[in-house]
Amino acid sequence: MAKGRRRQAQEDAAPGSRALGTEAADDDAGDTAGSDDEADENPSGRLGDAVTYAGVLLALAVVLGSLLLAMETEDPAWTAFEMWSRLNGIQSELTCMQAQDQDGARYTIAARDLVAESPVLRVPRAAILAASDAHNVSGTQGLSAQLAGHIRRLADHELAPGNATFSTSRRMVLAVLLMWHRRVGATRPTRWSAYATLLPERVPGLPRNLDASTLAILQGTSALKMAEARTRRFKEEFRHLRHGFKSVCKAKPWFEEHDYVWARDMVDSRSFMLSLGDQAVEVAMVPFADLADHANENCALSHHMDENGDFVATSRCAFAKGDLVHNWYGEWGNSALMSQWGFALDFNPFDSMAFFGRFLDTWVVDRVMFEFVNQGGCNCCGFTHGGMGMQDFMALCSDVETDDGRTERRSPWPPFMQNEVWADRVKFRRMLKETMGIYRERFEQHGADFVTWWLELDPKERKRCFMMPKEELRVQFNSTYDFQTAYQVVLCSVLEQVENFPSTGYKNDGGTDCEVFLETHLGTKRGAWTVADAYVNTDEGCDMFFGMLMQLGGDHLLPKRPTESRKQAAQAKRSVEEAGKDLDQKVSADDDDDDDEGEEEAEEEEDADRKKSTDSGTQSFRGDRRLVRVLIFRYFADMAWTRFKRAVLDNQETSSTPEEEGKLAPSASESASACDAAPDASSPEKKTT
C-alpha cells in the first residue's frame, strides 16, 4: 500500500508557507509609495503634481491588492502557530509546506543548506505539552477554573502510581488536555490553542477513515484488527471520561465521541516518548517536530533532550535547501504504521503485515511494542526489584535457555519496557511456585484414591472437568496477579498465540512428555479452553493427565527441555520465521523429542550448536506459553479435584487404618521421573501410576 501522507513538490506548496525565523521580503512598492517628489516651481508643475498623485494612488492600489491577496492565500492557522512558536522560543531551520490536496497534509523541507550532525530544531520544555502538565498552570492556562480543576483531578487519579484503570493513563490525560484547548480555543485563545488548531481534522489513512473498497483490501490483516481494537478502546475511554465531565459540559454538547477520538488519534500519531524532569518516560506533544513525516532511512532526524531540558532535533546527513526532511517513528512494521499512522511503506525492513493465522513470535514482539507504546509508557512496578535490570531478572528464571537469553538482548523494546516485562515474569513464577505445595499435598495424601476414581469415571464425565472460559485468564491477569501494562499485553498476545499454536509451525514447547501431550491436545471450542477426546478416553491420555498432576507439585515449575529437543525446536522456529510472508509454507512439528536430559554436556558445545540454529534475532515467548498452559491445566486440575472431593472424600469415613493411609501416590522425585518417561499405553500398571 502506498504511503498515507501525500508528498508534493516544493512548488506545489501552499503560498505563504515559510521557514520559522525568516522575514517577509521587502516590498518595493512601499518604497515607491514612501518616496517624496518635490513640487516643481514651474507653472506647468501642476500637471506634474497630478501625474505624481496618480502614481501614488496606483502604488497604493498595488500594495492594497497585494495585502488582500496575501490575506486570501495565507494560512491563518499557520500564521497563528508561527507567531506562537516565536513567542515560545522555538528555533527551526526547517520550512513547513502544505500539500495541495483535499487532506492538506503538512511536511517539512530544509529552509537552507544544512550540514550533517547539525541541530535543525530546538523546542524549549515550556513549549512541550505532556500529561503531567495537567498539574501545572501552563498546561491549563486559558481554560476555566472549573474545567482546569476537573482535568487536574483526572490526572491525579489516572497518573497515580499503581493505578491502571485503562492502562492508557498518560495518553488519555494528554488527549483530554489537547481536546479542551482545541474546543475552547475556537472561541477564545488559550495557552495551547494555536498549536491544537494547527493539527489536522483527522488522520486520513486510518482504516476507520477509508472507503469500503479500500477497506476491503485490509480484511483479514493484523493492521485492521489492531485498528478496530484501538477504536473500541477509545470509545470505552470516552464513556468513562464523559461521565466525569458531565457537570462541566452541563447541557452543552461540547464533548462528543468524535472530539475525544480525534484527540487520541493526534496523541497516538504525533507524540514522542521523552524523559522530562523527574518522570522516567513521558508521552509528550512537541510542536513543529511532529510535522515531519516518517521514513526508514539513515538520514532521518534524531532527537534528544539537552541539559536544559530542551528538545533538540539533529540532521544525520547533509540537506540541500528544499530537500524533504523526515522523522523516524521507530522500528514499526506496516501493521502498526497502518493502524496508528494511516500509511504503509512499500519497502519496510520491519514489515509484519501478517495474517492472523500465523501468530509467530515476531507478531508478539510487534503487537506488544505497538500496544505498550500506544497505551502510554511505564507505570511504577508493583514488584519491588531494587533497581534490577533485565539480566538480573533473567538469572532468576531457571527455565530461560541460553538461546532465548541471547535473542532477548537484541530485542527492539526499550530497556525500561524490557525491565518491566522481566520483573513481572519473575513475579509470575514466584506466585505460581508459592502454590505448588497445594498440588503436592493433594496427590501425596489422596493420589491413589484419585487415580482409582478417575479411571472408573465415565469419559463424558471426565470431559466436563476440562472446560475453562477463555476470558478466565484475562480476568486473572488483571485482578489476581495485577501485572503491569507491558506484561499484560505480552500474556494476552501469548494467549492468542497458544490458541493458534498449530498454525505457527513451531516445535513443541513442553519440557516433559506429559507437558507436550497436553500442548498437542489443548484447544478452544465454543468460547472455552478444552482438550481433545484422546486426552480423556485413552489409557495414554490418562497416564499423561496423572503425570501433569504430579508435575504441578514437582520440584520445578517448568522443567528444562532435553538438549536435542531444544535444537529441533529452535531450528523449526528459525525455519518458520524465515518463511516470511509465504502463508502456505509450514514446518512439520513431528514429536520425535529425545528423552535424554543432556544437562551434563559441555556448555560451550551446547551454545555453539544452538547458535547455529537459533540466530533468527527474534526473542522467544516459549516460557510465557508454558506458563499460560500451566495456568489452564491448574484450572482443569482444580475442577477435577472439586468433583473428586465431592464424590469421594466427603463420603469417606473419618477414620482409616494405617494400611489405608499408606496408599499414597509416588513422591515428588518419582513423579518427575514418571512424567519424563515415555508412556507405554499397553502396560496395565500405568493406569495406577
Low-confidence stretches: 1-19, 21-41, 66-73, 352-357, 375-391, 580-616, 654-689
Mean pLDDT: 71
Helix proportion range:
40-55%
Strand content: 5-15%
Major β-sheet annotation = 4 strands, antiparallel
The dominant shape is: elongated
Helix tally?
A: 28
**Separation of termini?**
59 Å
Radius of gyration, CA atoms, in whole angstroms: 33 Å
Structural class: alpha+beta
Q: Largest beta sheet: what is the strand line-up?
A: 1-4-9-8
Overall number of strands: 12
Biased composition (Basic and acidic residues): 557-567, 574-589
GO molecular function: protein-lysine N-methyltransferase activity
Organism: Hondaea fermentalgiana
Transmembrane segments: 50-71
Question: What would your notes on this structure say?
Answer:
Residues 24-41, 590-607 have a biased composition (Acidic residues). Residues 665-682 have a biased composition (Low complexity). This protein is α+β, with helices and mostly antiparallel strands and 689 residues long. Among the domains are: 129-285, set domain protein methyltransferase, domain 1, CATH 3.90.1410; 361-378 and 389-579 and 609-688, no CATH class. 48% of the residues lie in helices and 7% in strands. The chain has 28 helices and twelve strands. It has helices at residues 28-34, 45-73, 76-87, 137-140, 145-158, 169-185, 193-198, 212-217, 222-244, 246-249, 257-270, 334-341, 361-374, 390-395, 402-408, 415-434, 436-456, 459-463, 471-478, 485-499, 513-521, 534-537, 539-552, 563-578, 603-614, 622-647, 658-661, 668-676; strands at residues 91-92, 94-98, 106-110, 118-123, 129-130, 272-274, 282-285, 302-305, 311-315, 468-469, 522-525, 528-531. Strands 1-4-9-8 form a four-stranded antiparallel β-sheet, with no helix packed on it. It has a three-stranded antiparallel β-sheet with strand order 5-7-6. Strands 10-12-11 form a three-stranded antiparallel β-sheet. Strand 6 (272-274) and strand 7 (282-285) form a beta hairpin. Helix 20 packs across helix 26 (622-647) and helix 24 (563-578) runs parallel beside helix 25 (603-614). The protein is elongated, with a radius of gyration of 33 Å.
